[in-house]
Write a structure and sequence with these properties.
heterodimer; A: 300 residues; alpha/beta; 5-stranded parallel β-sheet; 11 helices; 28% helix; globular; B: 144 residues; mainly alpha; 3-stranded antiparallel β-sheet; 10% strand
């Protein structure tokens, strides 16, 4: 039985309001049966330093990424991870995290690869919860493990590989990295560690829309109107466009994927998780340096 | 595992981590994060003396101090929202404190990989601690 939706007026304007809940909603529904609240952060210890009472931790690096092959965990591992967190296929899962829900959106996107039916983000994430004086605890959450079914991962609708990007030329690409990474001045975010790309720049024809522009100062998503102005107005996306978003390893672009898919209602948006750490190292793929988007090459 | 003899405090920290289950290792790291002392006021007022460890994902600054007895003291500051980084800094600050310059330079560069955190924290994140150690050593080598 799915948990009630949040009737918040701001959400109602989005294409899929059922994908968001507010902090006020969470305070009210925190203890509803069938609801699992997950925290997904960049910092692997942040949850332990204090989390929303009853929330369970999920770690993007150690639990959602395969530790050997560069890929997400397979169906059996995904089922084991979710089962260990007390999640069933019928659970309503609300994910929140640090940094404008950046890693929460990444976890939500991985849940979507496995088609988990009811997964939502807490608008404003960890920062807003704390800013409003929400309780945090270090007390470990008691989790009763559940059986999560082993379901196939369906990459095609929302995940792009390098070959898909090469075939996509002529359709919109969104580069969600910082302006310095886009021009090729840097290959990592300002103030982040060098993770190794041989070339700096961007995929030809990609529009630059840094991911965090979708977030307001309080870490919530901007309104539908504000988002339309950015993605349709500035980046020039049109109704029915097929879009691919990318960043450095696919985490920031899963945030933009969420915005385009669930808030603005684009139906064909894929996240290229190979992103710049693959493209910037790949042999014989075209790149563009400098601030201009560049022409789209012939698709191949 | 390294073969060089570790200074006593670093060896003790290593043993403390290794004897714990993976999950409890994170809690011990959190204890270290909680214990990271505030910067001495002379550095608080002189942010220019601090060096940013750019390899870390969060803003962490270190300052390496050598006293009259040739004893090294590492000071570090990192935000509360970055407990992993604070934990790493705290391990090094406690583990290196009071060692001579030569002893610090002899600490194996792979010490961060040997305290049993690569699985719980991930190898990528451990790099931040390796960078802190490397920068500490470089500061000592380049000391006027």
């Amino acid at each position: 039985m799915p948990v009630d939706l949040d009737p918040d007026a701001k959400f109602a304007a989005y294409a899929h309001p059922e994908r968001l809940v507010s902090t006020a909603w969470l305070r009210e529904h925190q203890h509803d049966a069938g609801l699992i609240v997950l925290e997904s952060d960049e910092d692997v210890l942040l949850y332990e330093s204090g989390h929303i009472p009853g929330a369970v931790k999920i770690d993007w690096h150690t639990e959602l990424n395969d530790q050997v092959q560069r890929d997400f965990v397979d169906s059996a591992a995904f089922a084991a991870v979710l089962g260990s967190k007390g999640i069933t296929r019928d659970s309503t899962v609300v994910i929140y995290g640090d940094k404008n829900n950046w890693w929460a959106a990444y976890a939500l996107w991985v849940f979507s690869l496995y088609g988990h039916p009811d997964v939502r983000l807490l608008d404003g994430g960890r920062d807003k919860w704390i800013a409003e004086g929400g309780a945090l605890t270090r007390e470990a959450t008691d989790v009763a493990a559940e059986e999560y079914p082993i379901v196939p991962r369906n990459d095609a609708p929302i995940r792009a590989f390098k070959e898909d990007v090469l075939a996509h030329f002529g359709h919109p690409l969104i580069d969600v990295r910082s302006p310095e990474e886009y021009t090729g001045e840097r290959t990592t975010m300002p103030a982040y560690p060098e993770e190794g790309a041989l070339r700096g720049g961007h995929i030809p024809s990609a529009a630059s829309v840094p991911w965090a522009r979708a977030a307001a100062a309080d870490a919530t998503f901007k309104t539908r109107e504000e988002l339309e102005a950015i993605y349709r107005g500035e980046a020039g996306l049109r109704e029915n466009d097929a879009v691919i978003a990318y960043c450095r390893i696919g985490e920031r672009s899963s945030h933009t994927w969420f915005v385009l898919t669930h808030l603005l209602g684009f139906e064909d948006v894929r996240n290229y998780d190979g992103s710049w750490t693959e493209w910037g190292n790949a042999v014989r793929v075209p790149i563009v340096t400098g601030p201009a988007a560049g022409e789209a090459p012939e698709p191949r | 595992m390294t073969t060089t003899a570790l200074p006593a405090k670093l060896a003790e920290i290593q043993e403390d981590f290794l004897e714990l289950e993976q999950k409890d290792r994170l809690l011990l790291l959190l204890e270290f994060a909680d214990e990271l002392p505030e910067l001495p006021s002379r550095y608080r007022d002189h942010p220019d003396l601090l060096e940013r460890v750019v390899e870390c994902q969060s803003p962490v600054f270190i300052f390496v101090d050598v006293d009259d007895q040739d004893a090294v003291h590492l000071h570090a500051t990192a935000p509360r929202e970055s407990p992993t980084t604070r934990g790493f800094a705290s391990i090094l600050a406690q583990g290196l404190d009071g060692l001579s310059v030569a002893e610090v330079l002899d600490v194996p560069d792979d010490y961060p990989q040997t305290i049993g955190l690569t699985q719980a924290v991930s190898p990528l994140r451990i790099r931040g601690m390796s960078a802190m150690l490397a920068r500490t050593k470089r500061r000592l080598r380049e000391r006027p």
